[in-house]
UniProtKB/TrEMBL annotation:
<protein>
    <submittedName>
        <fullName>Uncharacterized protein</fullName>
    </submittedName>
</protein>
Length: 64
């Protein structure tokens, strides 16, 4: 099993973490972004949120 990078998806209205995702470090930046955007869209749909209300951050380097 390879090294992974961990992300949190956050609802910007509440500040709550609504999901986690781990991605292989073997993926290039474009592939990582594609997977993050896909997960963001799925979360927006399942939580009935506007896409702009969800953002992700590197779990090891939070924005807050």
């Amino acid at each position: 099993m390879g090294a992974k990078k961990y992300y949190e998806f956050i609802n910007s209205q509440t500040g709550n973490i609504i999901a986690h995702l781990s991605l292989s470090l073997a993926l290039n930046k474009e592939e990582q972004k594609e997977k993050l955007e896909k997960r963001k869209a799925l979360l927006a749909t399942s939580h009935k949120l506007n896409l702009d209300l969800i953002y992700w951050q590197d779990k090891d380097h939070p924005i807050r």
